[in-house]
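Field reference: sequence -> structure
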Amino acid sequence: MEFGFCLLNLNSIELGVFAYNERAIAVYHKVGFKEIGRRRQARIIGAQKHDAILMDILAEEYTPRYITPYLPA
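Structure field:
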């Protein structure tokens, strides 16, 4: 994320994840992503229907930690 925000000058980064992947969703929330949408029953695996979740984070919501100290002022 720091590469995208600090070096590529992106304003937002988004991702998609299926609702059954609860551990990934927890990690994305922990680093600052927020749910912005949901496609209901987007994927059928066997007899199960699963939602697709769209998440994003804005540059203003992210605190850089690694690359920024090495960038010229």
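Note: The chain has a mean pLDDT of 92.
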